[in-house]
TrEMBL record:
Keyword hit for Isomerase: no
Domain CAAX prenyl protease 2/Lysostaphin resistance protein A-like residues, every copy: 142-239
Pfam families (UniProt xref): Rce1-like
Molecular function per GO: endopeptidase activity
Domain of life: Bacteria
A GO biological-process term: CAAX-box protein maturation
UniProt-recorded name of the protein: CAAX prenyl protease 2/Lysostaphin resistance protein A-like domain-containing protein
Organism lineage: Bacteria, Bacillati, Actinomycetota, Actinomycetes, Kitasatosporales
Keywords assigned: Membrane, Transmembrane, Transmembrane helix
Spans traversing the lipid bilayer: 59-77, 89-114, 134-155, 175-194, 200-220, 227-247
Keyword RNA-binding found: no
Amino acid sequence: MTADRPAVAPATPGPATAGRARTLHRLRHHHRRVPAASAAKVFALLAAVRIAGAVSLPLMVLSVGLSAAVVAVLDRAEWAAAGLRRFRLLPALAGTGLVVLAYADTVFATRAGFGRGADNWTFLVPGLFRQMAPGQPVVIGTAMVLCMGFLVPLVEEVCYRGVLYDAVERTRGPFAAIAVTSAGWALVHLGDYGLNPFNARVICGVLPSVFAMGVALGVCRAWTGSALASAVAQGTANLLLLAWVLWAL
């Protein structure tokens, strides 16, 4: 026979852990109660950090992390409603085709309107990565493919066509959700193009271009019900855009 072991009391969370849990509970409760107002506050924070990234590389990187963290306003049971779920193949293929066409249209329209130089925002894409690792072409190329094809699409689509889209759709419907998230997504791209250095022609090109791309991504989200399908569509279109820009340079 063995001696009875003394009962071990369950560990209690420390003050910091309990405080974080209470804060998270309040955020989620607020988002469930007033999703549109909650989404507006989330977007205001994201936009401020992302646009400030025009003059600060650390803030640009921070904006990616904040976009991913937006999912914290949802309980796990709410993820599917926000588009964080699997998708059917045929609607996703149709949505991806639409997004690629939208990218192609805006790329050619931008080239026709602004040429192939510093006034065309699409030709500035490689420069975003060259400033991160100057003189290291292998690192730059790897970063471009991983970020443009996988990381950025996943983070952005979960944020914009996921959490924010769902919040607007619940109160205003899918058409408003597509329009609002597309406009917001276009606005935050000023953190990447047109402000540093300031170039009004770049701004005039990037805002309508990214808005049109966002509309196509929003339609993909509506067709599939999945922000993950939109992430696949954006990643595919981004890599095709990147390949074209590098070929055309």
